[in-house]
Each structure stands twice: as structure tokens, then as C-alpha cells.
């Protein structure tokens, strides 16, 4: 059915899908703009911005790196690389003033932003300033760093992730640029590109992306399920949030990648890129949501009213116990008593680990111990010992427990 659509119908389908993706992307940009502003303001106040000037022919470009927050750097990269690829891709489709010659010079540009940094192409005069970053690689890097952090920054695991990332990026680059041709429409005057349906066609790019996302998502889920957190704790909610976000990330990108794969395999050449703009949009939104939910204090991560009340009650009980604590002061006269008093501060009195200090009320500890703590929760005692040291030669002599001192004391006692 899709293979028999007319040129006008295919152009109309592509137009609707592109306009819809642009509308969703613009709405999400406005919605996440306050978060970006807060991050920039926090960075400026903390003086955490590092400015690095780099010479890119023919312009000197100011590149801003967020030194201490890799996540914010990735957020900026995925955000503005996505905006760039959306603008370049949809400009070629909606602009009606292309000629066949200008289309030949233009058509590879969106693919470069989507696929990989590109070298050796026969149009270097246009591609010199492009290809620094690509949207798909940034998105996959975000997911890779997420898995790396969940693995507790294991060095061996990092090597495996890096190898998988390079392999996936290389295959996506080859699939994106292999035998790609311009698609100039004399009827509408626009310019796009088409890819063959062979083994290394454009559809393989999306197949590789699906496999990579699936592998990394499974790894992230494995590490998240290994985390042992108490039910109701803040860490438990953060773990659940990361688990849900990772699953939705994979589902969203897998659906749009399957859609693009189907368009590349089962539609005429002029409709191949109809869902490409939608793919750019979904990749942008899902990737930055992974970062925003970890740094933007989402509502479902904040403690509930019950948890807040319990925390306040715990603090009140702690303060009351401190105020009601009994202080016992004992004057120590002999050197032996002084020594025992000092050693007692670092030695446990029994195997049960009974602590003569103000208890640290912990909600999770209270919920675990239950009735055991209720038996001893009525009385809390804190014992302090006040030690007064006399600075006389006799005291220093009594405090000397070396072998020489002991032999001296023994000889004196014999005499």
C-alpha cells in the first residue's frame, strides 16, 4: 500500500510528520528551558565554567564546557545537536528554491549530523564545518555513561562499553553514508536524500541503534536490580525512577527506530525520510529526560508528606533525648584511673555493641529492628568523664608506661 502512493501524497505524508515532530520538539524545548536556565545559573554562581578557545577554520569559536558536570555537558550537546539536525533536515524538505546542482551540494549535511563525523567525502568545501558531533552518538554516549556509573565505574566494564560504542558508531556511519544519493524534486523544488535497500542501506543504521540500545538497557536494568535498598527510602525511589526511565527510553527509541526501518525497507525512495524528523525529535526528548530526571528534582522523587513528617519526628526525638540526657562527671585522681578513662572511649564494653551515647534515630533502622528497640527505648544515658591533667613532673612520670619507667618504679619499690 505504501509503495503505491503518489508523489503528492508522499510529500503530504512527509510534511505532516515533519511538522508534527517540529511542534513536539519546540514544545519540549520551551518546557525544559527553565531547567537549562537553572543549570547555567548554578554553574555561573559556582564558577564551574571553563572557557576553552578553539580555532575552527575559518572562525574562532568559543566552546563552553561544564567542567564538573559531565551530565550537563551531554545535556547541552544532545539539545543543540538535535536542534541543528532538525533545522538542517527540515530546511531541505520545506525550502522550494533548490536546483539540482545546489541539492547535490546540500543533501549529505543532515546525514552527517545524524550519523558520524565524516572524512574523505568528495564535497569538502561544504563539510569542513560540520561533523563535529552527531545526535545518535551523543544519545548512545548518555546511555553508556549511565551504565558505566551504575557499574560503580568498573574499569573492565568501561573498556567493554567503549568497544561496543565504537563498533556501533562505525556501523551506523557506514550504513548512513553508503551509496546515499540526493533526491531532488522538480515538482516541489525541495531536496532530500535516499538510501538503497541493500545490506548496508540506511535501514541498517536503525537496526544497529536498536541492538545497541537493547544491550545497554539490559545492562542498566541488571545493575539497578542488584541495588539493595529499603522500601520507602529515597534511594529506593531514585532506583525505581531510573529503572522506569531506562525502560521508557528503550521503548520510545525502539518504536521510532522500527518505524524508520520500515519506511526505509517498504516505501518508495521519496518517502524514506518521512519519519526521520520524528526520530530526531524522540531521540532528543528521551535522551535529555534521562539527565533531567536525575538533576531536576522531579516530583515523583521528592519525599512524600508522610516521609517528611517521620523525618521531622525523628529529629524532634533526637533533640529531646539530647536535652534529657544525664551527664555524670567523675574526678579521677590516680594515673591508672585516667588511663582507663581514656582507653574506655575507644573500647567496646560488651560483644553486643551497647553504646553509651545519644542514639542516632534512623527511620530504616527503626523499621528493621521493630520491637527489640522498644524494650530499651525508654531510657537513654550518656556518660561523660571530666579529666583534669596536672602539669607536674610527678604526673608525667606516672603516665610513662615504658619498660624503662617500669623498671625504675620497680627498683624504687625494692629500696
Strand order of the largest sheet: 1-2
The proportion of strand residues reads 5-15%
Helix-strand pattern: HEEHHHHHHEEHHHHHHHHH
Radius of gyration: 33 Å
Unreliable stretches covering 5 or more consecutive residues: 1-5, 48-68, 115-133, 297-315, 321-327, 348-381
Return the CATH architecture of the largest domain: Up-down Bundle
Transmembrane segments: 13-30, 51-68, 74-95, 157-175, 203-225, 246-264
Keywords: Membrane, Transmembrane, Transmembrane helix
Compact overview of the structure:
The chain is mostly helical. It is 62% helix and 6% strand. A hairpin with a 2-residue loop joins strand 1 and strand 2.
Provide an overview of this structure.
The chain folds into two domains: 301 residues, Rhopdopsin 7-helix transmembrane proteins (Up-down Bundle), CATH 1.20.1070; 109 residues, no CATH class. The chain is mainly α and 415 residues long. The termini are far apart. α1 packs parallel to α10. It has 16 helices and four strands. Keywords: Membrane, Transmembrane, Transmembrane helix.
Structure keywords:
16 helices; elongated; 415 residues; 4 strands; membrane; mainly alpha; Rhopdopsin 7-helix transmembrane proteins; disordered N terminus; transmembrane helix
Q: What's the SSE blueprint?
A:
Layout: H1 7-45, E1 49-56, E2 59-66, H2 70-94, H3 100-106, H4 109-114, H5 124-127, H6 135-150, H7 155-177, E3 181-184, E4 191-194, H8 202-226, H9 234-266, H10 276-295, H11 305-323, H12 335-344, H13 363-369, H14 371-375, H15 393-399, H16 403-414
Amino acid at each position: 500500500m505504501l509503495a503505491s502512493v503518489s508523489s503528492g501524497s508522499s510529500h503530504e505524508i512527509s510534511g505532516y510528520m515533519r511538522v508534527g515532530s517540529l511542534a513536539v520538539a519546540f514544545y519540549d524545548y520551551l518546557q525544559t528551558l527553565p531547567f537549562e536556565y537553572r543549570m547555567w545559573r548554578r554553574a555561573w554562581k559556582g564558577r564551574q565554567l571553563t572557557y576553552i578557545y578553539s580555532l575552527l577554520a575559518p572562525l574562532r569559536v568559543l566552546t563552553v564546557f561544564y567542567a564538573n558536570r559531565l551530565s550537563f555537558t551531554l545535556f547541552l550537546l544532545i539539545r543543540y545537536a538535535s536542534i541543528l539536525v532538525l533545522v538542517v533536515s527540515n530546511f531541505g524538505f520545506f525550502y522550494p528554491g533548490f536546483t539540482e546542482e545546489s541539492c547535490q551540494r546540500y543533501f549529505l549535511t543532515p546525514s552527517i549530523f545524524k550519523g558520524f563525523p565524516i572524512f574523505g567525502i568528495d564535497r569538502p568545501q561544504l563539510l569542513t564545518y560540520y561533523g563535529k558531533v552527531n545526535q545518535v552518538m551523543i544519545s548512545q554516549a548518555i546511555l553508556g555513561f549511565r551504565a558505566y556509573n551504575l557499574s560503580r565505574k568498573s574499569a573492565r566494564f568501561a573498556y567493554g562499553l567503549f568497544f561496543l560504542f565504537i563498533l556501533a558508531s562505525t556501523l551506523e556511519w557506514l550504513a548512513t553514508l553508503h551509496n546515499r544519493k540526493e533526491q531532488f524534486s522538480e515538482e516541489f523544488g525541495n531536496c532530500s536524500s535516499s538510501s538503497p535497500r541493500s545490506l548496508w542501506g540506511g535501514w541498517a543504521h536503525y537496526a544497529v541503534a536498536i541492538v545497541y540500545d537493547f544491550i545497554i538497557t539490559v545492562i542498566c536494568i541488571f545493575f539497578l536490580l542488584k541495588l539493595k535498598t529499603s522500601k520507602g527510602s529515597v534511594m529506593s525511589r531514585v532506583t525505581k525512577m531510573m529503572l522506569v526511565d531506562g525502560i521508557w527510553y528503550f521503548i520510545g527509541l525502539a518504536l521510532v527506530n522500527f518505524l524508520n526501518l520500515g519506511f526505509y525497507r517498504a516505501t518508495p525512495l521519496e518517502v524514506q525520510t518521512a519519519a526521520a524528523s520524528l526520530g530526531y525529535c524522540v531521540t532528543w526528548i528521551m535522551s535529555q529526560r534521562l539527565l533531567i530526571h536525575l538533576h531536576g528534582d522531579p516530583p515523583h522523587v521528592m519525599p512524600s508528606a508522610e516521609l517528611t513528617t517521620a523525618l521531622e519526628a525523628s529529629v524532634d526525638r533526637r533533640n529531646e533525648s539530647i536535652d534529657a540526657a544525664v551527664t555524670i562527671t567523675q574526678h579521677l585522681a590516680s594515673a591508672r584511673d585516667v588511663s582507663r578513662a581514656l582507653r574506655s572511649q575507644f573500647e567496646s564494653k560488651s560483644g553486643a555493641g551497647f553504646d553509651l551515647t545519644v542514639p542516632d534515630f534512623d527511620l530504616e533502622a527503626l523499621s528493621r529492628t521493630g520491637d527489640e528497640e522498644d524494650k530499651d527505648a525508654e531510657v537513654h544515658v550518656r556518660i561523660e568523664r571530666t579529666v583534669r591533667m596536672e602539669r607536674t613532673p610527678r604526673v608525667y612520670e606516672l603516665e610513662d608506661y615504658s619498660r624503662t619507667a617500669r623498671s625504675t618504679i620497680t627498683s624504687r619499690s625494692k629500696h
